[in-house]
Amino acid sequence: MPDSGLFYKEWKQNKALLIMIFLVFMLSNPFTVLNTYISYQGCVANQNEWVGPCVFSVDYLNGTFISFFWIWGVVLAVSQLGIERSKSFFDFTLSLPYTRGQIFNAKFLTGGMVIVVPQLIGYVLSVLLIMLLKPDQAVYFHNYSLGMIIVSMLAYSLVMAGGALTGNIFAQLLVSFTVAISPFLLISLPAINLEILFGGSIDFIHGPIPKWVQYFIPITYVDSKWVENSPHYLVIPAIMTIIFYIIGYISFVKLSNERNGYFFLWKPLDRPVQIIVIIIGIMGFGYFGFSASESFAGYLIGMAAGAVIGFFISYFAIYKKTKHV
User: Fold this and answer.
1) Distance CA 133, CA 121 (A)
2) Which of 150, 248, 263, 298 is 20 to 30 A removed from 239 (C-alpha atoms)?
3) CA 96 to CA 256: how far, in whole Å?
4) Are 149 and 120 in contact (CB under 8 A)?
């Protein structure tokens, strides 16, 4: 368990952001209910000007404030690792009389409490408002309110893991986004290219896919449609949150060299990742070239362009040092 001094340090260093996120998480859910009620009252007061009957329905599938909660998990993780490293605060943090494991856990627990506690408070306040205002229906209220806690933690732990592996903010965000769409990059994109090369059809792309498979893709949770399916699927992002925490913890503890602005903290990752980026560039631009020209020549031109672009992007991103403030 981290020492209280580490929690105090996290609080003092990110106080303004932590307070803002806490208030947003706590008030957005009740405000959604209250805003819907105000709109309903406006409909009742001006019923002659409205088309159709006035219905007091709280629909959490139709664009609510809490659908963007995952963004705050990303912002918090970037502030705690990426920004702290870019501003050279880590020299001070690592000089404190604590282990690297204690430091990471203090950061993660602080972030976790700021994400989970206010959302639970907001959920309770929303339940009380619903009991008081008595809407005709509250669509997906419980599933979405509680599910967003898990989704927010998933985004937070993913970006924290990305920050523990990388040496600057750009790298942290790029690695996190790449992992979020990795099943497409590693499975679907190669399969699409095989279709182009051999002229056949890859069954698993066009055939029926079980609903639960898509929930292994973190980017899926950006779209609130996940709430329409069984709440039991939320076990998947909960497990992924734990996995990303473990990856982040091990990386933070083992990768002791901060490398002052380079892409990866673990140098042996540089070359394999560069090769992967080039291969993805070849496949991605090859597919784009084939789609644009509908010819194999366009596919080859796209592959050549992808190889060049992938090389330069990976070279300048991975091997060029980012200046710290």
Assistant:
1) 18
2) 263
3) 14
4) yes
- Cα 288 from Cα 108, distance rounded (Å): 40
**Angle ∠(111,158,116) on CA atoms, nearest 5:** 35
Going by pLDDT thresholds of 50, 70 and 90, the confidence category of residue 132 is: very high
Token pair, residue 97, equals 């009389």
The pLDDT tens digits of the residues spanning 22-76 come to 999 999 999 988 988 888 887 777 766 656 677 788 888 776 778 889 999 999 9
Give 245's contacts (C-beta < 8 A, 6+ positions apart). 108, 157, 160, 161
Q: Are 13 and 106 in contact (CB under 8 A)?
A: no
Tokens of 76: 């918090």
- The strand ranges marked E within 52-94 are 57-59
Which three-class secondary structure state does DSSP give residue 188?
helix
- Indicate whether 206 pLDDT > 60: no
Instruction: Tell me the CB-side half-sphere exposure of residue 76, using CA atoms within 13 A.
Output: 34
Give pLDDT tens digits for 215-224.
888 998 988 8
**Which of 13, 4, 73 has its CA nearest to residue 221?**
73
Residue 154 CA to residue 210 CA, distance in Å, equals 22
Are 72 and 21 in contact by the 8 Å Cβ rule? The answer is yes
Separation of alpha carbons 90 and 290, rounded Å: 47
234-243 burial, b if ≥16 CB within 10 A, otherwise e?
Answer: bebbeebbee
User: Which residue, 215, 213, 79, 220, is CA-closest to 159?
Assistant: 79
b/e map of 190-203 (b: 16 or more CB within 10 Å)? eebbebbeeeeebe
SS3 state at 200:
coil
87 phi and psi, to 5 degrees?
Answer: -95, 10
**DSSP assigned state of 81:** I
Per the prediction, the chain carries an average pLDDT of: 86
The model carries a pTM of 0.89
> Cα–Cα distance between 29 and 231 in angstroms, integer?
19
